[in-house]
Amino acid sequence: MKPKGPYKKHIYWLTKDEEERLRDELAARNIRLKSAKGIVCTPLDEINKITSVAPEVWDDTCKRQGSWYRTSEKNGLYLIISSFELVDYEEQKAATITESDFVPPSLANLDDKNALVQDSSLKKRVPDDWLRPGDIEKRIYLRWAKRLGSDVKDYDFLYLSHTANHANFINPQFFIQDGKEIIPYSIDKSAHLCSCCVEMFQVLGGKYKKKLVAPCPGATIFARLKPDRYLLVEKT
User: Fold this and answer.
1) β-pair partners for 125
2) Which of 16, 30, 170, 193 lies at 20 to 30 Å from 147 by C-alpha?
3) What average pLDDT does the segment 144-154 reach?
4) DSSP label at 42?
């Protein structure tokens, strides 16, 4: 598991006042702090140098998925995704994201996923809004899965996979080890994932020093991340 290529993003969580201060500081240096619109993951695109995600963006296009944020300790904070480190914001830094060459030793089968979603740690953490996907959303995820090469025609399979994957970052069953440290990883291919943003941005699994996260279909479409190419999320 080694970093691959120059891709790097620095992740920060700021209060509203801190975000406004950062915006002014950057403007003084002729650097524009972009504001994300509609979708949380677009700042992960390599072309976006630095972007702020306001709390309300989690209520927009991916409102159900945003429930993980709204029920976390980060609710109300501004997410900053930057291609460069921010001086004087070290305490607010949550992670560094780089591209890796990781290949998972195994992926979860149906029995594994069913076991993961029965875990008591997930049941304590899963938001109520996550449990209620709409019909339009179901069709979108089936279409995206097909776009990424999956022949799955049953949304229930995707929903199980989505939920089990998040569960694995709450109480990992699929992980590798670095000495005594556990490094959880995404349990299925990109076509069968959802809302990788919550792992990328430390909403889930933030207690682990390292995580290996495969992009979901939304991140491959809206942030141009490579399907099935795992990203290493390292806690600061």
Assistant:
1) none
2) 170
3) 96
4) G
